[in-house]
Amino acid sequence: MEVINALGRRKTAVARIYMKSGNGTITVNKRDYKEYFPTGILQFVVEQPLSLTGNAGAYDIKVNLDGGGINGQAEALSLAISRALCEINPEYRPTLKAKGLMRRDPRMVERKKPGQPKARKKFQFSKR
Question: Rounded distance, CA 115 to CA 81, Å?
């Protein structure tokens, strides 16, 4: 089987994946994903698309993760895996879409404005 490429993004995190048929190893930045994502919640987020479609242990996934924090990276990886699975078999799409795994989360950090301490917070107003 050929290699399937996919891209997932969340906040400033970018996940580029290379998926091929194998025995289910997920390598993130040349490390095992369970070592890279130490908490069970993040591991569940990464495994969710594979377990929903019944493909846990069916594909070897090599991941290049860049930018963002650990949570954003896990969600970016989840989106990339979902997109790759849909490329392999379009019948997976309704299952993944029902769980909200096919949507790129558009929320980004709002920029800081000049004359303010943060994006929305204002300096204290003094009448006199």
Answer: 42
Beta bridge partners of 63: 17, 28
For the entire predicted model, the pTM comes to 0.90
Domains delineated in the chain: 4-98 (3.30.230.10)
Find tokens 């089987």 and name the residue.
Answer: 1
Tokens representing 116 are 């303010």
Task: Write the DSSP symbol of residue 4.
Answer: E
pLDDT in tens, the chain (128 residues): 689 999 999 999 999 999 999 998 999 999 999 999 999 999 999 999 999 999 988 999 999 999 999 999 999 999 999 999 999 999 999 999 999 999 999 999 999 999 999 999 999 999 98
Residue 32, both tokens: 């095992």
What letter would DSSP give residue 96?
H
CA 128 to CA 121: how far, in whole Å? 20
